[in-house]
């Protein structure tokens, strides 16, 4: 008789009705898998908990939380000393939940159960970044699965972390972007890739594997999770009025026709700036420029309900 596979849930510690959720997971998954629940208690906890689960021989990982929890589980998984990372699933219970928008993943544990049992997963690309840590003391590395960006996004992320939960996701991100546009000044940068270079003053540069960020804004409409490329969205000198005027188009996923916005593609790039600029990865502030980015093709298996989503083709 084959031994049941082990399934480890890495759950954000501030998840509402945690006991109710765990009981539901036991009811849905308990007859098919050996279950393991690990609850975060502080920032970066999910990285350590993921590594512990892998060390103890788990077969599957499920990130339960928002984009930050997914980011940490991905980093714990990919930084673990193994030949092949284990497949991951996501139960989206955070504020933004932007990665799952590209993948069509819902807050449906039954759908996830079916995907795992039927081994329905996508083999997706992952981004790899080297940059200066938040204290500017040393160079560090991290993976991102959705979007990394410099400038405006890094500042907005810092603001979101101190925003009250009762505002809701859309209003929280909207206010953070508006406040960041008010406070942030365009800075001079240089982007170098094997095929092209860019020099200029920018508010932000997004390196997009997925299309969505900031709670449903389609910043990179052409981004694919399976093409081995990042879509680089270069945002020049724009202001609050530009953002407000184009927000409906961003929500609809339209490519913006704007003199200060450029859409380019790259497998890798280096970004240098005259002054250190904040970096956000998957909704988490991580450090400062300069940075080096490389896309790692087909690096991670992630369970999805539908393999025909546009970002997977």
Automatic annotation (TrEMBL):
Q: Which InterPro entries match?
A: ATP-NAD_kinase_N (IPR017438), Diacylglycerol/lipid_kinase (IPR005218), Diacylglycerol_kinase_cat_dom (IPR001206), Lipid_Phosphate_FormReg (IPR050187), NAD/diacylglycerol_kinase_sf (IPR016064), YegS/DAGK_C (IPR045540)
Question: What GO molecular function annotations does the UniProt record carry, in alphabetical order?
Answer: ATP binding; kinase activity
Q: Would the keyword Transferase be found if you checked this record's keyword annotation? A: yes
Residues annotated as domain DAGKc: 2-133
Keyword field: ATP-binding, Kinase, Nucleotide-binding, Transferase
GO biological process, alphabetically ordered? phospholipid biosynthetic process
Name the UniProt record assigns to this protein: YegS/Rv2252/BmrU family lipid kinase
């Amino acid at each position: 008789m084959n031994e049941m596979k082990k399934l480890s849930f890495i759950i954000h510690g501030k998840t509402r009705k945690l006991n109710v959720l765990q009981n539901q997971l036991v009811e849905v998954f308990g007859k098919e898998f050996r279950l393991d629940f690990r609850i975060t208690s502080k920032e970066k906890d999910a990285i350590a908990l993921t590594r512990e689960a892998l060390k103890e021989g788990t077969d599957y990982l499920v990130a339960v939380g928002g984009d930050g929890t997914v980011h940490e589980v991905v980093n714990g998984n990919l930084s673990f000393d193994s030949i092949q990372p284990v497949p991951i699933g996501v139960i989206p219970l955070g504020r933004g939940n932007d990665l799952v928008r590209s993948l069509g993943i819902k807050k449906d544990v039954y759908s996830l159960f079916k995907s795992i049992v039927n081994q329905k997963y996508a083999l997706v690309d992952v981004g790899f970044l080297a940059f200066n840590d938040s204290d500017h003391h040393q160079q560090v590395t991290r993976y991102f699965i959705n979007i990394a960006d410099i400038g405006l996004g890094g500042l907005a992320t810092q603001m979101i972390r101190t925003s009250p939960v009762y505002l809701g996701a859309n209003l929280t991100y909207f206010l953070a972007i508006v406040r960041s546009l008010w406070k942030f000044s365009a800075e001079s940068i240089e982007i170098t890739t094997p095929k092209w270079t860019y020099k200029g003053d920018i508010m932000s540069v997004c390196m997009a594997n997925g299309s969505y960020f900031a709670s449903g804004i389609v910043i990179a409409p052409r981004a694919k999770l399976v093409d081995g490329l990042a879509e680089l969205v270069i945002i020049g000198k724009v202001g609050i009025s530009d953002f407000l005027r184009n927000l409906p188009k961003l929500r609809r996923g339209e490519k913006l026709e704007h003199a200060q916005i450029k859409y380019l593609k790259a497998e890798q790039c280096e970004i240098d700036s005259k002054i250190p600029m904040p970096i956000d990865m998957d909704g988490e502030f991580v450090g400062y420029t300069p940075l080096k980015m490389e896309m790692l093709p087909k690096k991670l298996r992630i369970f999805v309900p539908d393999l025909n989503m546009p970002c997977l083709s």
